Fold this protein.
Amino acid sequence: MTKRNSKGPRGPKIVAIPPGPKSKAALSRKEKFITNGVRVALPIDVTWAEGPFVRDSDGNVYVDLGGGIGVQTVGHRPRSVIRAAKAQLDRLTHISFMVATYGPVLDLAERMADIAPPGLTKSIFLNSGSEAIENAVKVARAATKKAWLVSFKTAFHGRTLLDISLTGKEKPYREGFGPLVREVLLADYADPYRDPQGRAPADVAKARVEELDRLINQPEVAGRVAAILAEPVQGEGGMIVPPKEFFPLLRRLCDQYGIVLIDDEVQAGAGRTGKMWAIENWSTVPDVLVSGKAIGGGLPFGGVTGKPAVMDAPGPGGLGGTFGGNPVVCAAALEAVDEIEKALPGTKRLEARIRKRLDEMAEGHERIGEARGIGAMWALEFVKDPRTKEPDVDLALAVQTAGLKNGLILLTAGFYNNCIRLLPPINIPIPLMDTALDLLADSLDMAVAGKGR
């Protein structure tokens, strides 16, 4: 592998087959002091990260294709973000925006109004995407005076009680945590690959929205739906990219029945798909946009930005949070947005490179059911048989393990846990991405041959 120089690493470097002894020791401490309810995906103990690289306590250097679950859209620790956070630490760390105003939160709110879809001009800032989803639902219910919510079975909207009610995956998200929020309907997302009738993408989109129409007009629910929540690309669901017709039809449905369309951009937004907001790829304007992850530049962030008529519906004091709109986070977020905008033009070239290589892998391995994605948001879905599409969870885990030994941080995803997802920095150098894709192909070969475990 490539050696490191004074400017930092130029490629992955494995000096101790992971998990090395120091990482093993850290995992032992985790078992002793951290609840079993928190699962650690990879057996490594991270001590440093910069740009596309992560180093563990045993000295191994990895190319990070997980990005902290989509947080590091322009890589770890962008210099401008770090400078802004450090400067703000010297001025003000906390007063709470519910006590007094301060510049960073006002500056960020103004910036969000500039970059959000047209007409979305008012914001609230919080501590996570999960918290932002909660607040988006609050404003939708306040605006419509209705109770019911619609989400999708393969969606992921967070880990609070409301958020898991909006998330269809039972294990590990919902199991054992009931009773859940009652006024939630879960529908099928527009996923052409797993359409049981094998219809064309446009027909899948039309059929799914027609099913939604019937669902929201059930006797108990009709006229009582406050919001439909949708991710433009379902990240945890396995990078499911809907047909181009889906979101315009969904927008029309919401307009027909006076339903608030909540666009969950926590993972898919902030440049990840080649646009600042993923829904721009579908030429659709939501009523409310939920942001998070990458906007914080590595610091805890959640945001809700929407149309004034919706955002102003809750009365004074109805929204807020002690640490929401933290000045250090907002100062960092302003720089993170600038870094993302600067990197956006290169995303299409990166997308073309990834698409070509993943398609080649899919052609060479029948156990890859589908390679799919957009921008710098991709997945390989593994199946035991391409005809039955039975999920192959073991192969996904084996590729992840082999990838780690090859110097790659890979994350699994999918409703069935049978996908490997790729979330590289959108500004990763193309030669390094080529190297990472070579290593991914090798990891796949190792896993298929039974050598990745």
In short: The domain at 21-77+345-448 is CATH 3.90.1150.10 (Aspartate Aminotransferase, domain 1). The longest strand covers residues 368-374. The mean pLDDT is 96.
